[in-house]
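[RESIDUES AND BACKBONE]
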Amino acid sequence: MTSANEVAGRVQRTCRLDEGSSRLRYVTGKRGEALRRLGLLQVRDVLYHLPSRYLDFTRVVAIGYCEVGADATIVGRVDKVELKRPKPRLQLVEVAVVDDTGVLFATFFRQPWIAEQLHPGDLVALSGKVTFSYGFKRMTPTFHEVLGTDEAASYARILPVYPVGEGVSVPWMRRIISAALCDVGDVCDVVPASIVAGRSLMSLGRALREVHFPTSLVAAEEARRRLAYDELLLLQLMLLARQRIELAGSEPVEHVTDGNHLHALVSALPFKLSQEQEVALGEVLADMAAPRVMNRLLLGDVGTGKTVVAAAAIAAVADTGTQAAMMAPTSVLARQYAEGVGPLLDAAGIPWALLTGATPTAERTSVLQMLAAGELCCIFGTTALLTEDVEFPRLSLVVIDEQHRFGVNQRVSLRRKGAGADMLSMSATPIPRTLALSLYGDMSCSRIRHRPVAGAGVTTKVLAPENSDLAYGAIRDAVAAGHQAYVICPLVDERDDGSDLDDVPERSQAQSRRLHAATSTREELARGPLRGLRLDLLTGRMSADEKDAAMTRFRARETDVLVATTVVEVGVDVPNATVMLVLDADRFGLATLHQLRGRVGRGKDAGMVYLSCAAGPRSPARKRLAALEATSDGFELAELDLSLRREGEVLGYRQHGGVVLKVCDLSSDKDLVEAAHADADVLARIDPELRAPVHAALALECRQRYRAYFEEVERA
């Protein structure tokens, strides 16, 4: 049985997690600065700074027994270090490493400083693929480390390799974390013992020790899964708590869902709702009619008809005698929704208006007056809806398109213009179930997987840059037939460095290549392969008026080819466009490329998408793009995209801010996602504010980890 002193000591150590990392042993001034640059500000940050990989010295292979063509970790003595310059601009360091069974030459390209780090007699560990040439085994190490005397004595163990930066090396990070574990590591378990036992999880204290200095690789993975579960559970609890804060003091609206406006709108539709649309609409209307605030996410691929579901929800608002607001991320998309949904609302007798940053002053004043007087039932707009002079007498429904493109404060600001307003978020980005459960765990989810009208379809073809004439020929043929085309570039202009592009797995390889910029590409095409055609430009840096003007010209067929960035990714609807060429396609994520190709083939004529990629035919980039050639299922591609990239990069969080998981791998931890979601749901029912003593540590840890997000909601 644990004594009172042991419990008190554990509580004290747990409290130390919030201390600054400078309080840890070995953290001097320079190392403290290095830790801060890595974002390791508190003791908890240091303990949760997990290894990126391990060196398994329990399975070190002797040089003489290394298998050529396989990865290996070897330990040996440095015999010779030589800096070579085989070419004027190429420097390499060749290191001869020996053990009792043979010699291996390790080559470090463009790392001349290695010659000063390694010295004859040093005991080193090397990891990498073993090759054979010129009579010797060779390696271009992916990792190397000089082993100290203490490690040399007993290196038959597993050593962690950490992400580090200037001012702190991997060995020093090991010492710092080892000392932190010794001084603070035996902390209170934040998850109740009943859940830990029920899920067969490792205890938190043991997990922290095993994840840093594992007794086996199996134990390291079990420890990581325990920490991943904690991360998922705390995220779920944060989302639920954040929702409670957002809705504090709100009275839900029980909407009328069988009124005349709704029946009139459905009757005005030029088509019959598909079964999936009817199911999604039924779920939305059931939430709106219930005596609780709706918080629903509607997922659907391009062209699946999510907008019709939103229009029907707005009709239910009209039947209730209240108001609705629909916010889009761009003025182009807001105007498009107004043009698409507006006629349906007109047919149902529902007054509406459009409000963007480009709305003329006189028109804006008139719209705001009608809105404040309750004469408008629905308003479409951008973040212009968030200004203080936009007032609703009775806002009961907020529809947000592409929610992840807005900050938390923007979403909350609009919702708080109507206390108790239902929220319907829509996304054309196919989101895997695990991602939806983890990052949108506070929302109910509806999915529309199939298009009600299949359309003419889209064919996707990957081609090398030298074969771009095929794409340009297709564009010219399409224009000759009376159609239009897109040319998509990753950059806006030549000054961009590409740092804000998608984090694709091959990014480092692609960075050395000159990427296409929309501004210069338009000029080059006008002088070259598309000479004589009417070319226009659309980028995210243009003003709202300039974007609207460019899209208006394109829709009116005043231009033949629109050279653009991914600003056309979401919602741009020009049925006459049938061909798209994406330059440097390997610099975009699969989800982005799938969204882009949804811009063509939207009418009665088939679409053709060309993906230009300079990578070799057997490269990971080409294999990734081949998936787009093979399937048009957005959800299938989203699963693949998630397996290749982090969840925040799939959704665009790197640009727009959001919660990014650090420990959990959503593609392999699906069972943990389901478990954490279920456990959070139970906790929310039995103790929604986590006030019970057994949940005190969980509540505190949740608040500490996500302090910034709680503060953002409270400020909004």
In short: Residues 458-631 form a domain with the Rossmann fold fold (CATH 3.40.50.300). The radius of gyration is 29 Å. Residues 507-511, 652-658 have pLDDT under 50 and may be disordered.
